[in-house]
Amino acid sequence: MKYRFGGGRTGEYLNGIPAKSLSEEEYDALPAEQRKQVRESSLYTEVADAPAHPPAKAEDKAPAAEDKAPTKAEDKPAAAKAGEGKR
């Protein structure tokens, strides 16, 4: 998205320009005068391009299943603790 439209709640719009957020292709298809109106209008906010899928970081990855296993009695689920020692 190139420009985010924010005038929908107030009913404001610019004649001849879609009253919606504009993709880069839609913005580029507008005549020069209308592109200028969009840039100068308070109804549209320019949006910086963001990568579609940022690269995953090592710390963002989930640990392996064996890394999650409880190692101490107090780490075991309550149901497992309740059954201990009642034999």
Helix percent band: 25-40%
Radius of gyration over C-alpha positions, nearest whole angstrom: 27 Å
Average pLDDT level: 76
- Most strands sheet: 2 strands, antiparallel
Number of helices: 4
Which residues sit in consecutive blocks of at least 5 with pLDDT less than 50? Answer: none
Q: What is the oligomeric state here? A: single chain
- In sequence order, what are the helices and strands, one letter per element? EHHEHH
Strands of the biggest beta sheet: in what spatial order? 1-2
Q: Estimate the global geometry from the Cα principal axes.
A: elongated
Instruction: Give the number of DSSP strands.
Output: 2
Question: Which secondary-structure class do the elements indicate?
Answer: mainly alpha
What attributes characterize this protein structure?
87 residues; 4 helices
